[in-house]
Each structure stands twice: as structure tokens, then as C-alpha cells.
Design a protein that fits this description.
Length: about 525
């Protein structure tokens, strides 16, 4: 029975996953994707957080190899971590449905870059759907699983911040399929990508993409709005909503299945208008592909490649207005919460004049006043390895000031490899790694991870001990301390470890101040 409800894009994806019988939802939390698996779990689906996105995708691949349906979720930079299995599973495919949600973040509301993951679909050769609102999130996700199974290919499901978090009316169909019972068929020629099989698989992949292009030409994922013959706009995703408000008189071709493109449909549309403009957030991927096919369209000026589009920016884009945009109103700068356990840690590092190799998490805010105690930040897990690199070339007095800072969730994500590197390729001055353990994945909404002892739904789970892991790898000194309660002792400990030639891990452990109430409420869960 159809329901009419108000839902965000993330909620719609979760509902669709439940309604079409997804066996497992798996991912790593990252804004703007984080709510999808929480909502899927609340719907009654089986969901779990993986230590990182590569692990998540590989678990999802296993589900799909066993003829189940798996939904794998991550933010855009997470797909970098999952790229290794992505490029190979594009060749082999899976008999079960495999849909990978990439939630891109134009404008970097909560990210270190605004990469455009449409490029992954082209590079890996995987079909890609791009919904423009919550209804399309729901409808397209169900079709994504059908396409994945029909063509034995993973499907990249690209959403962006505004689609993820904006709400609109959704017509929900209700349960249309139950999760399948898994089965496995011995088929190494399809599933084992040794070179002899992979060469065949690559040719099969390209043949499948041609078939998908033919499917796309039939128009199921294309919306054409007739308007003026003077101006035509080709667009996709959230940009469609902005175009409709900015240029209601224009003819519009909205693309929902954006790789492979329906080039003949696009050609006919472009020929039907005097001026044809491509409006897209991020990189000029549609414009470049359409022009490369010999279809003459206008792209956008370089200035509109950065940040999110909105109605006013689209009006300017269509008018060719490249005058400087007004500066946004200054907002309140972000800062570590009052009472945050990281505050005393950064105070000590600042007072000790450390060179701090930082990482991704709420603790990255230690770069800002009043602490100004983070000197580098690249990507998840890089704090340890970047710090080791600096230790390799700095004069001894400088090298002894280098400290790597990483959070507990990020340690589980990609920090362990850095500890292995530290022990295996030990610098002459040793190294100090500081794990800021606040017992949650705080930055993305207080999600669980392998070190919290709780599953995605906050019920008990086996707990991975950071101190046991690093001791097992072979770290010389492992200390656990509360830097808030024992500030002077903490400061003295950091000084002592910096002065030695040992490898040292100091775990500054104190629960996140915002998570404390929630942590208490989880204690009774079974």
C-alpha cells in the first residue's frame, strides 16, 4: 500500500533498501551519507559499520557473490579507500545486486576536498544513477538493484549533500521483495580475476556498457520539459531543481542515468534549441563528454566549478555573469566543544611546541584558535605515516618534536597500517603516536566502531582493544591516560616519550562530552 510521507534523500534510500529486500547494508559513516544505514536499521534491515570503506565494499561484494543484495554506503572520499575492489568488481560483476552509494560534498560542508565522484564511474566503467530528490532516491535505488542483477554489474549511486539532507514528499510503495536466501555457484572464470579471465571480463564489461547505453536511450531515466526554443539546459541531480527555479522558461533535459550517457537523446535535444547550456555542480563532466561526442553545448565558467550551485548562481551562469560573487556572510568559526576531552591534550601539545601531524575527525579543529596545535592533515590514517616521514628527514632536535594525533575510529579505519610501518621501519628517534579515544565516531554523529564494544544499533559487540592491538604489533611503550583529569602527568608523559628513541603509543581516553548521556542509555541494550 502506497504511503505519502515527508522524507530526506538518505531516509528514502534506506526505505527503498528495506522495501526491495536488501540483505545487508554496510559502510563507514561520513557526512553526508551517515544517516542511511542508521535509518535502514530502524526500518528493520540488517546493517553494520565496517572499519573502513574498502572493508565495507568487500563485505558487500561477498553478499552479492552469494546472490544476496548489498547496499554499501560512504561519502565521496571514502570511495578513494574502496577504489581497489571497485575497479576489479566492475570487471567480474556479481550475480546478486550490488549498489554503492557515493555521497559527494560540493562546497565541502564537512570534507577535506570536493572531488567529483562521477569520474569514478567513467574510470572504473560502472553504470551510475543520479537522483534529484527523495522520490528519485527511492525509485532509482530499487531500479539500481534490478539493473545490477540484470546486467551483473555494480551500480554507483551518486547523491550530493542537498539531495541527502533535503526533504520532499515521497510516495513509498511498501515491501516489494523479501531478502533472498543466499546461494553460491562455482564460477571461477567470472569471479576470479587472474589476467587470463580479466582480459575477457574487460571486453564483456565494455559490451555491457553499450547495452546499458541503449537502455538509457529508451528514456526511463530521462525527463524532458518543453519550453523555449531559445534556451535549452541539460542537467542532472540537484542542479535540476535550481534550473527549474532560475529559468522556468527554458527547455530542460534532466539526466538520471549519467553513465553511460544517452548521447543520441542529448543530440536531438541540443539540436532542438538555439542555445544549449549544461548546468552541473562540480567538474564539467557532462559538458566535456557531450562536446567530445560532437554535440555543441556550452559549459560553465570556471568560477562555477567551485562550491554548491543555487538558484542565484545558476541565473548568473546562464547569463554569463562572471563578475566576482559577493563574499558570504561570516559565520561562527567551528571549535572543540566546551568540556571536550581533546582540549587539554591540545593545550599540552601547544605548550610543548610539538610538530603535530593530524588526522580526520572532530579533533582536526585543534588547528584553530585557541590551540593552533595541528600542523598537517591529509586523509584518514595519514597522521601516523606523515609523522614518520617527517621524522626521517628533520634534524634530530626537530624530529623529536613530531607527534602523530589520531582518533579512535580513525585508528580502526586506517591507523593500524601506520603502526605497522612505525614498528617495521622505525625512525632513529623513535616516534610518538597519540590516540584521542573518545569512545565514539563523534564527527559524523556518534556512530559505533570496532573499539566501542557496540554494533551499529548500539547493542553489545566484541570490543577491539587499541592497546592490545598496538602491543601485539610490537610498540615499545603503550600508555593509557586521561589528559583532562591528569593534565600534568599527561604532559610529563608526552615529554618523556618524545625524549626517548622508543616507539610509543599514548591513548588519551575520555568519552566525548556529547556522547556521555547516550553511552549510559546503551548500557541496558541486548
Amino acid at each position: 500500500m502506497t504511503q505519502r510521507i515527508l522524507a530526506s534523500g538518505n531516509e528514502a534510500i534506506a526505505m527503498a533498501a528495506f522495501d526491495c529486500g536488501v540483505n545487508l547494508g554496510v559502510g563507514y559513516p561520513g557526512t553526508p551519507s551517515s544517516e542511511i544505514l542508521d535509518e535502514f536499521s530502524k526500518e528493520g534491515g540488517t546493517a553494520q559499520w565496517a572499519p573502513n570503506e574498502k572493508t565495507a565494499l568487500e563485505v558487500g561484494i561477498g553478499v552479492a557473490f552469494a546472490n544476496g543484495r548489498s547496499l554499501v554506503t560512504m561519502k565521496h572520499v571514502g570511495l578513494n579507500v574502496a577504489a581497489d575492489p571497485l575497479f576489479t568488481i566492475a570487471y567480474s560483476g556479481t550475480p546478486g545486486g550490488l549498489v554503492i552509494v557515493s555521497a559527494d560534498d560540493p562546497g565541502m560542508a564537512s570534507s577535506q576536498n570536493e572531488q567529483d565522484n562521477r569520474r569514478y564511474a567513467i574510470a572504473a566503467g560502472v553504470p551510475m544513477l543520479e537522483p534529484a530528490d527523495s522520490q528519485e532516491c527511492y525509485d532509482f535505488l530499487i531500479r539500481a538493484f534490478e539493473l545490477s542483477e540484470a546486467y551483473r554489474r555494480p551500480v554507483l549511486f551518486r547523491v550530493t549533500t542537498r539531495v541527502c539532507h533535503s526533504k520532499c514528499i515521497l510516495e513509498r510503495r511498501g515491501r516489494i521483495a523479501e531478502p533472498k536466501t543466499g546461494s553460491f555457484t562455482h564460477d571461477p572464470r567470472s569471479n576470479v580475476m587472474i589476467p587470463a579471465y580479466a582480459r575477457i571480463a574487460h571486453k564483456n564489461l565494455r559490451a555491457t556498457l553499450h547495452k546499458l547505453e541503449e537502455l538509457n536511450e529508451k528514456g526511463e531515466f530521462v525527463k524532458r520539459i518543453e519550453g523555449s526554443g531559445e534556451l535549452g539546459v541539460i542537467t542532472s541531480g540537484i542542479s535540476f531543481q535550481h534550473v527549474r527555479d532560475a529559468a522556468p522558461e527554458a527547455s530542460v533535459l534532466k539526466l538520471g542515468f549519467t553513465y553511460p550517457l544517452p548521447l543520441e537523446t542529448i543530440r536531438k535535444f541540443a539540436e532542438s534549441v538555439k542555445r544549449c547550456v549544461v548546468v552541473e555542480e562540480g567538474d564539467p563532466i557532462l559538458a566535456d563528454a557531450i562536446n567530445a561526442a560532437g554535440i555543441r553545448v556550452e559549459g560553465k565558467p570556471e568560477m562555477f566549478r567551485f562550491g554548491e550551485l543555487n538558484v542565484q548562481r545558476v541565473r548568473r551562469l546562464l547569463a554569463g555573469d562572471t563578475t566576482p560573487e559577493p563574499a558570504p556572510a561570516p559565520g561562527k568559526p567551528p571549535q572543540l566543544c566546551a568540556g571536550c576531552p581533546h582540549r587539554k591534550t591540545y593545550q599540552a601539545l601547544h605548550e610543548l611546541n610539538c610538530i603535530v601531524s593530524g588526522d580526520i575527525g572532530c579533533y582536526t579543529l585543534g588547528v584553530l584558535p585557541p590551540f593552533e596545535a595541528v600542523d598537517t592533515c591529509v586523509c584518514m590514517g595519514a597522521s601516523i605515516t606523515v609523522g614518520l616521514g617527517m621524522r626521517r628527514v628533520l634534524p634530530e632536535a626537530e624530529a623529536r618534536r613530531v607527534v602523530s594525533v589520531i582518533g579512535d575510529s580513525t585508528f580502526m579505519h586506517t591507523g593500524v597500517n601506520g603502526i605497522v610501518e612505525m614498528v617495521y621501519n622505525r625512525p632513529a628517534t623513535g616516534h610518538v603516536v597519540l590516540v584521542l579515544d573518545n569512545s565514539t565516531t563523534a564527527m559524523t554523529g556518534m556512530q559505533e566502531h570496532p573499539g566501542t564494544g557496540r554494533k551499529l544499533d548500539h547493542t553489545p559487540a566484541p570490543q577491539v582493544s587499541i592497546e592490545q592491538v598496538v602491543r601485539g604489533i610490537g610498540v615499545d611503550n603503550v600508555d593509557v591516560i586521561d589528559s583532562t583529569v591528569n593534565y600534568e602527568a599527561f604532559k610529563e608523559l608526552v615529554q618523556k616519550r618524545l625524549a626517548s628513541n622508543d616507539t610509543s603509543v599514548i591513548i588519551a581516553r575520555r568519552p566525548c562530552i556529547l556522547a556521555m548521556v547516550k553511552l549510559k542509555s546503551y548500557e541496558g541494550k541486548k
